[in-house]
Amino acid sequence: MKRSNNWFPFGCGEETPGADKMFIFHYAGGSSSAFRHWAAHRRPVACIPVELPGRGTRVSESCLEHIDELMERLLPELAAAIADAPFYLYGHSMGAAIAFEAACRLRSEWGLRPEKLFVAGRHAPHRPDPSSFRIEMGDDALIAELRRLNGTPQEVLDNEELLRFLLPTIRSDYRLHESCRYRGQKLDVPLVAHAGKLDFEAGPETMAHWRDATDKAFELKAFEGDHFFVQRLGEDYVSELLRDATYRLRA
């Protein structure tokens, strides 16, 4: 039976008792529904998309725009959902920054150590952001950024009324992302970085710098596609990700 929790709208892995758990953090402008199909099947690792306040199923709530406030509210929920199970953290784009911060704080503040951290489509925390876009540039620049990243459906970009409705939440995500600050944190868990070969700001060369974010094993994998290769590769990507999760990296 699924336990109701607004942070985990598709369940906390109750349908696969005894399975490891993978908590999944979405990209800016997305929501847990982007990974709903990951949670829709029985898998060797239970996939648990995380819903942030103000997004998706929590659209009526206020968005959180600072990483410290998010961690204060999120970590107790994560700790309860982990419930002594082996667990992994996965994040795409903005979600990679959130997953890294959660991994660091779960370890230092809660004594909880993920089996691995998976990151995709985002520069390493100690490296400068290669994108020239900053949220203070305004709506027109934000829309141009969404077009450049090629992840927002064209019908949304062409619908001015719908786009203006969505922009406040997207702006909040970018503010949340820009609030992430590197303070010298270094993990003691294996880290796997996934890159789209055509992702011009988070391609394999950029993602390789994640090796300096951990003292343990590191692996870099490149996939066909651009920034949103994760979504476009579909089930093939999910299957490879979960195989990587259960494969033990050499330290």
Outline the structure in words.
One of its GO terms (biological process) is lipid biosynthetic process. It comes from Cohnella phaseoli. This is Surfactin synthase thioesterase subunit. This protein is 37% helix and 14% strand. The chain has 251 residues and is α/β, with parallel strands linked by helices. The chain has a single domain, classed as 3-Layer(aba) Sandwich (Rossmann fold), CATH 3.40.50. Strands 2-1-3-4-5-6 form a six-stranded parallel sheet, sandwiched between helices. Helix 7 links the parallel strand 5 and strand 6. The protein is globular.
Output the keywords:
Rossmann fold; 6-stranded parallel beta sheet; 9 helices; alpha/beta; 251 residues
In short:
With 251 residues, the protein is α/β, with parallel strands linked by helices. The protein has helices at residues 36-39, 67-82, 94-110, 139-149, 154-157, 160-178, 204-207, 229-232, 234-246, and strands at residues 20-25, 45-49, 87-92, 116-120, 191-196, 218-223. It is globular, with a radius of gyration of 17 Å.
Return the CATH architecture.
3-Layer(aba) Sandwich
Query: In CATH's first tier, which class applies?
Result: Alpha Beta
The residue fraction in helices comes out at 25-40%
Using the alpha-carbon principal axes, give the shape: globular
Give the integer mean of the pLDDT values: 88
Separation of termini?
38 Å
- Number-wise, the strands total 6
Q: What share of residues are in beta strands? A: 5-15%
Into how many domains do the coordinates divide?
1
**What's the oligomerization state?**
single chain
CATH superfamily: Alpha/Beta hydrolase fold, catalytic domain
Our count of helices gives 9
Structural class, by secondary structure, is: alpha/beta
Q: What strand order characterises the main sheet? A: 2-1-3-4-5-6
Q: How large, in whole angstroms, is the Cα Rg?
A: 17 Å
Major sheet attributes? 6 strands, parallel
Pfam family, one: Thioesterase
Protein name: Surfactin synthase thioesterase subunit
Family: Belongs to the thioesterase family.
InterPro entries: AB_hydrolase_fold, TEII, Thioesterase
